[in-house]
Design brief:
It contains ten helices and six strands. The chain has 228 residues and is of the alpha/beta class. Helix 3 runs parallel beside helix 4 and helix 7 crosses helix 10.
Length: 228
């Protein structure tokens, strides 16, 4: 007899819109001890659905996906299924990708050059209540925290809350009452691209719907009430 407790493998769902990448990650994880892949999703909507069906321990989440991107999917999973943790696995390590994902509830963040051992460590870390961050992401967070506070400037402020110029443009069109399809025609982009911009600006600002977006645009002075 032994008192050693055998820990069951962590049940993992992989979400990535690129078939070759997704299948490669699933194959890699299948070779690792301590992880059992129970599902694979091609976009954020499918990831949320699989979490509801399978109740995995962890989702390995890509960020740039059609229909529902990784940030919005992370937000929905953490709100609706708090027993499932999210570890981002993405090509992008820039601030515009990192911080919205962490604010959405991701407990881990890895880039796709991570090895199998690093993925296992990140999964084990988030399941034990710690953060599963790659060394490069930890350095970036420390650098960000050590940056001096910006000094007040007389120059006109840029878009609020780190919005990009295109996200601000989409916000202004929402404030004008345009639908996603109308915004897509105005900007000559696809509706999927418009949805991605909306998801990103909602993640950065904490907005939940278009009505809040309109109030936000007026409150930040981006739109002025008509004179009358």
């Amino acid at each position: 007899m032994t008192d050693e407790v055998v820990r069951r493998p962590a049940r993992v769902v992989v979400a990535d819109d690129q078939t070759v990448v997704r299948e490669g990650i699933v194959m890699l994880l299948g070779l690792l001890s301590g992880i059992e892949v129970v599902g694979a999703a091609a976009d954020g909507d499918e990831a949320v659905r699989l979490v509801a069906e399978l109740a995995p321990d962890v989702v390995l989440m890509d960020l740039r996906m059609p229909r529902c991107d990784g940030v919005e999917a992370t937000r929905r999973i953490r709100a609706e299924h708090p027993g499932t943790q999210v570890v981002v696995l993405t090509t992008f390590a820039d601030d515009a990708s990192l911080f919205p994902a962490l604010r959405a509830g991701a407990r881990g963040y890895l880039t796709k050059d991570a090895g199998g051992d690093e993925i296992v460590r990140a999964v084990e870390s988030v399941l034990s209540g710690d953060a599963g961050l790659s060394p490069s992401i930890q350095r970036r967070l420390l650098e960000r925290l050590s940056e001096p506070e910006p000094q007040p400037s007389a120059e006109p402020a840029g878009p609020p809350d780190g919005l990009t110029a295109r996200e601000t443009e989409v916000l202004l069109l929402i404030a004008e009452g345009l639908t996603n399809q109308e915004i897509a025609r105005t900007l000559h982009v696809s509706t999927a691209t418009v949805k991605t911009h909306i998801n990103n600006l909602f993640a950065k600002t904490g907005l939940k719907d278009r009505a809040q977006a309109v109030r936000y645009a007026y409150g930040k002075g981006l739109v002025r009430p008509p004179a009358g």
